[in-house]
Amino acid sequence: MSCFALVFLFVSYYSAVVAQKKSIDFDQVEPPFWWTGMKNPRVQLLFHDMDVNLGEFDVAIDYAGVALEEVKTVENPHYVFLTLDINPSARQGKIPITFTAGKKRYVYSYELKEKIEGRSWRSGIRCF
Predict the structure, then answer these.
(1) pTM of the model
(2) What pairs with residue 70 in β-bridges?
(3) CB under 8 Å, gap of 24 or more: what pairs does 13-16 form?
(4) Are strands 104-113 and 66-73 parallel, antiparallel or unpaired?
(5) Any idea what the CATH number is for the domain that residue 51 is in?
(6) Range of 61's domain?
(7) Under a CB-based contact definition with an 8 Å cutoff, are residues 96 and 106 in contact?
(8) 74-101: per-residue pLDDT in tens?
């Protein structure tokens, strides 16, 4: 194999590895998704990752009908809480949540599902 081919393979591999880290693989996101059209338009999301200091990141959301109301950090820097306001005009889809700290920039796609009308109540098991 020629020297040129080896250099090309190394550069290709390095570029792929560097470009690959566009999102954080969070250890925990709660709730894992949410719905449009809920009676209470506010929801608080928990993000947790043992390997990343989430407290150092600025958070932004750019999605029609969804506003980021509050970013709350706690004593443990591996947790961050986001309070979202989901307007009735919001459509189902993936909400890009951007975490930025200096040159580090990660985007997490949070799923917003459409609420099915008439499903606001659940019936339990009846025991006679």
Answers:
(1) 0.75
(2) 83
(3) none
(4) unpaired
(5) 2.60.40.10
(6) 22-113
(7) no
(8) 999 999 999 999 999 999 999 999 999 9
